[in-house]
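Incident log, support desk, overnight shift.

02:14 A customer reports that sequence design results differ from what the structure should imply. Their input is reproduced verbatim below. On-call engineer (initials T.W.) acknowledged and began investigating.
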């Protein structure tokens, strides 16, 4: 199921807290959405006010984080790529907290051994 959509400027919004806004009230709450060319990403209904992000900034951030977004993609393809990236986060090669703790304990144990002469 799709998680994000671009707000059409006419749908009413329901937030996770249960607050409801008409399109006019939502536009008043986020006046930047009325700027020429501005597009707002919202979540899909029924609770469509779980996110209110500027599309271009949202896309750029996800691209820098590793989402497979390329030039020439449609808005819907971009949103699908972001959702895919969120569902399948990149694997990190960084050691886990447990691995770092184990390494530190090994160091302490080895460091406490008597010196060999």
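02:41 Re-run completed on a clean worker. Output:
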């Amino acid at each position: 199921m799709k998680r994000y959509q671009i707000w059409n400027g006419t749908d009413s919004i329901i937030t996770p807290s249960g607050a409801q806004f008409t399109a006019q009230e939502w536009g008043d709450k986020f006046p930047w959405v009325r700027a020429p060319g501005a597009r707002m990403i919202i979540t899909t209904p029924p609770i469509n006010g779980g996110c209110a992000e500027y599309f271009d900034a949202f896309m750029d951030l996800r691209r820098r984080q590793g989402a497979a977004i390329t030039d020439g993609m449609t808005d819907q393809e971009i949103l699908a790529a972001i959702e895919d990236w969120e569902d399948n986060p990149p694997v990190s090669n960084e050691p886990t907290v447990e691995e770092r703790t184990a390494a530190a304990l090994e160091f302490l144990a080895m460091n406490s051994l008597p010196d060999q002469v």
